[in-house]
Amino acid sequence: MPSQPLIDTYNLFGETAELADVLHVETIRSRSELYDWELRPHRHARLHQLLVLTGGAGEADLDGNRHSLPPPCLINVPRGVVHGFHFGSGTGGWVITLASDLLDQSLAPGEGMRAPLDLPAVLPLPQGLQSLSARLFREYRSKDFGRAQMLRGLALSVTALAARAIAAAQGTDPQAPASPLFTRFEALVERDFRLRRPLADYACELAVSATHLNRIARQATGQPASALVRARVLREARRLLIYTNLTAAQIAYELGFTDPAHFSRIFAKGTGLPPRKFRQQLAESG
Length: 286
What we know:
Layout: E1 23-27, H1 28-32, E2 38-42, E3 47-55, E4 58-62, E5 65-68, E6 73-77, E7 83-87, E8 92-99, H2 100-106, H3 114-117, E9 121-124, H4 129-141, H5 147-170, H6 180-192, H7 199-205, H8 210-221, H9 225-243, H10 248-254, H11 260-271, H12 275-285
Antiparallel strand pairs: 1-8, 2-7, 3-6, 3-8, 4-5, 4-7, 6-9
């Protein structure tokens, strides 16, 4: 049984060093040409990416969902989302890579920016984002005084425009207040969803009752806290079924289940198909 998922997790397109700058900006061409314009599915544990496509064409795979990329468009790739691309030769635009620490420091919990940015999305390019991205790219390549401060300011403007566009496309209220407690709960779930922790453990670590935690989760999402934990487990299971050759039993153990049959029942209840049927349907549709 593998000790970790067989989905490539990179800091930046196969690089293993930490992101050395406050962010990274490069043209789509500069990286894609090295791989014949095709980047196979992978994910970034601590990086958020925005792709600004200005010309050409392509196709994106975001967590198993296929999207055509008619220019000009914006592709939002939150941390942890499995993504791959096939670009037409000569496709233009930029890849903006932001360290999660930069976003965590810049986005206050009560401002409502985090929720839309956490959604993988492909949408028409928001007005003003192309010129802003071009300016960010020029500043990134410069060595001028105050460069790091300019990069942080421009990056925050780019993410604000992206969040505004995603929220509008989703029909959500970007001004809806976010609970700091719920934000902490989300971070704990992301850290520990493989451990199969009971909800009472999460509540205890947050110094609240399970009842209060459920109330906060319902206010934020309309769902109880336990459903959010289950949804995170199912999302990872779906990724592993799509992007790896692990058996259903191996995936069950990877996600902290001691009984693969129990995992299969949970997966079937959450997705409508048992794991093997889910993978079979993927093969038939591919």
